[in-house]
């Protein structure tokens, strides 16, 4: 990893971090992250969820234990299948 704290505090690229654009007008958001993700630490999703909470945005944070960054591509996995169902339900609630 390239030093998330150093990069996320760099004002020249702050636009690249979703948590820097969260306002009260942000849409409802479903966050899902694997706790074994080596590409994007799941703590980033936790941080985004905190920012959503601060701004009163409806959201779900789903941490999938032991899964990596490509958890959505895993077939025949009960945890991933449950996450897919939750995402569809969430979308149906707000777009439905």
Helix/strand layout:
Elements: H1 4-8, E1 29-34, H2 42-54, E2 59-64, H3 78-94
What are the defining features of this structure?
96 residues, alpha+beta, two-stranded parallel sheet, 3 helices, 12% strand, flat
Total helix count?
Answer: 3
Determine the structural class based on helices, strands and strand pairing.
alpha+beta
**What is the strand arrangement across the widest sheet?**
1-2
Shape: flat
* Beta-strand content: 5-15%
Give structural notes.
The protein is an alpha+beta fold and 96 residues long. The protein has one domain (26-94). Helix content is 36%, strand content 12%. The chain contains 3 helices and 2 strands, in the order αβαβα. It has helices at residues 4-8, 42-54, 78-94; strands at 29-34, 59-64. A two-stranded parallel ribbon has the order 1-2. Helix 2 (42-54) links the parallel strand 1 and strand 2. The protein is flat. The termini are far apart.
């Amino acid at each position: 990893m390239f030093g998330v704290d150093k990069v996320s505090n760099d004002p020249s690229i702050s636009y690249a971090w979703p948590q820097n654009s969260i306002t009260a007008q942000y849409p409802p958001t479903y966050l899902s992250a694997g706790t074994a993700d080596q590409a994007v630490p799941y703590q980033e999703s936790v941080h985004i969820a905190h920012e959503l909470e601060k701004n009163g945005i409806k959201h779900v944070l789903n941490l999938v234990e032991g899964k990596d960054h490509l958890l959505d591509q895993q077939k025949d996995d009960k945890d991933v299948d449950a996450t897919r169902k939750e995402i569809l339900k969430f979308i149906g609630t707000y777009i439905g």
